[in-house]
Design brief:
Elements lengths: L1 H14 L4 E4 L1 E17 L4 E6 L3 E6 L6 E2 L4 E6 L1 H32 L5 H27 L13 E5 L4 E6 L6 E2 L3 E7 L4 E7 L1 H5 L6 E6 L2 E10 L10 E7 L11 E18 L4 E3 L2 E7 L2 H17 L4 H6 L4 E5 L1 E6 L2 E5 L6 E5 L1 H16 L2
């Protein structure tokens, strides 16, 4: 039986890092309503990336479902229009040099009285005009993501960049297609723009208060939702009213038009003792939470166990059973919302196992088997 005792202690040491202890708190719980909801995105949260110049679509640097950052590369286009723009910009640079030389010569002649003021003004105006044309082209090139100062030769390669963070929804144009200016090539959705439309009966919707909390469930994950407003028309197919919620947890990409379940928490709200839902487990046919044993009681019991072991070898089994430093507390589940459940059977401020319940339960079962096995 000493081997069993050592095994239990060793197992606890390995699993202790996975066990999280928290304290029961008082939280507000209201009337629970479970409804269906659809994940949507408002039109102002969807964007289309366009090619500002016509050309041949050569390469995509992204694919559907990929997250992109603002300024990230989206696609490459070979554009004859860009080739002409860059060639014109370089030509204007050469022209400016020539006009400046001519202006310098005219200025010298003017100072010597060999050229008129009108001649000097004409050359100054010519230089200003050429510089204005080049500055305009430089501005256009910068808006296309091209640094004019680095241009050494004409280029027809246009790289399309993302103008915002988002998720690539669709590639709108096949590769090796000739596109015209302002043609949308990629559809982008903003990850922060996910909403849920909850479907609810018309009578219930008309009585809906302003303060409403929602929790959306998708598989094993849940997302907190903030109620925005009741939409002005019912869904034509279901004839249900539609409540719009903003999904606050929006770091992860969600699937648009997917259906999920939503819990809506309605008034009146009551303060109740709350524990994490992850703390609840069935043990010997009852809902329980695990709580740490009182230190003094544990030490006393352990001391008594040693004395009994000296006299009766069989009672060593019960001592090993008590080595698990947790005990069960039977609770009654009253309500639940989000990550928490309202329970009876435990007082606020009492420490309990919030995470790692599986390990505690496993230790207790092993202890019981050790206490009754041979």
């Amino acid at each position: 039986m000493k081997k069993i005792s050592l095994f239990i202690v060793f197992t606890f040491v390995l699993q202790a890092s996975d066990i999280v202890i928290e304290k029961a708190t008082m939280q507000s719980f209201g009337k629970q309503l479970r409804v269906n909801a659809k994940i949507v995105q408002l039109s102002n949260q969807r964007q289309q990336i366009v090619s500002r110049l016509g050309g041949h679509l050569e390469t995509y640097y992204v694919e559907p479902g990929q997250t992109v950052k603002r300024g990230g590369k989206i696609a490459k286009i070979q554009s004859l229009e860009l080739s002409k723009m860059t060639a014109d910009y370089l030509a204007l640079g050469k022209k400016i040099e020539a006009v400046r030389e001519r202006l310098a010569s005219t200025k010298k002649l003017y100072e010597k009285g060999l050229a008129s003021k009108q001649d000097l003004n004409r050359e100054q105006i010519a230089l200003a005009g050429v510089e204005a044309d080049r500055n305009a082209l430089a501005s256009q090139l910068r808006s296309l993501g091209i640094d004019p100062g680095r241009l050494k030769s004409a280029t027809d390669t246009l790289i399309i960049h993302a103008h915002a963070d988002g998720l690539v929804s669709r590639l709108l144009v096949p590769l090796h297609t000739n596109v015209s200016a302002e043609t949308p090539i990629v559809s982008l959705v903003q990850k922060s723009g996910y909403y849920a439309v909850a479907y609810i009966g018309v009578k219930e919707a008309l009585k809906m208060p302003e303060k409403v909390e929602g929790r959306l469930y998708i598989g094993d994950e849940s997302f907190s939702c903030r109620y925005l407003y009741l939409m002005p028309k019912v869904d034509e197919e279901t004839q249900r009213a539609q409540m719009l919620f903003w999904i606050e947890s929006s770091d992860k990409p969600l699937l648009l038009n997917a259906f999920a379940e939503m819990d809506i928490d309605l008034p009146p709200y009551e303060k109740r003792v709350a524990v994490k839902r992850s703390a609840l487990t069935m043990f010997e046919g009852e809902w329980v939470v695990f709580v740490p044993k009182a230190g003094e009681g544990h030490e006393k019991h352990e001391h008594e166990g040693h004395e009994e072991h000296d006299e009766h070898g069989e009672e060593d089994e019960e001592h090993h059973h008590e080595e698990v430093p947790f005990e069960t507390r039977v609770v009654e589940i009253i309500a639940s919302f989000g990550d928490f459940a309202a329970v009876k059977g435990i007082e606020p401020g009492v420490a309990y196992v919030a995470d790692g319940v599986y390990f505690v339960k496993s230790m207790m079962l092993k202890s019981e088997l050790g206490g009754h096995g041979h």
